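User: Structure please.
Assistant: Input sequence and predicted structure:
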Amino acid sequence: MTTETTLAGRVASLHQARLNVTNAKAVIDNARAEWAEQWAPELANLEAATTNVATLEVLIRGEAVTTYKETGETHPAPGIGIRVTHRLSYDPTVALSWAKEHGLALKLDSGAFDAIAKAQTLDCVTYVDEPTATIAKDLGRDAIE
């Protein structure tokens, strides 16, 4: 058996497997649509209740933080707590100058470096061609014969 015959057989198997997935998804999609139609009122109630919860949580968090700022109280209501975290704020230009001066906190921006290396040849980069196989989405009769 040659590689071509084995590969062609696997392509035909893949084509059939993809058809099986498509058919199975269609069955599930139809069942889900019927289920959603049958349970539409309950789904609408769930969506409304979920929206209400989210709205109330935003309001309560805002009021709790306001109360904390005014009173320092870390438990402004039953079930409500305030967690204070420390956030850093700095000018990135000043921070980079400091990092260069101290030789600390320096990190290569690999995305930007890759873009530069693709645009021009760099001595410190080894350029390697790697083949990648692609498979057509539609493996109809033309592809498997």
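The mean pLDDT is 92.
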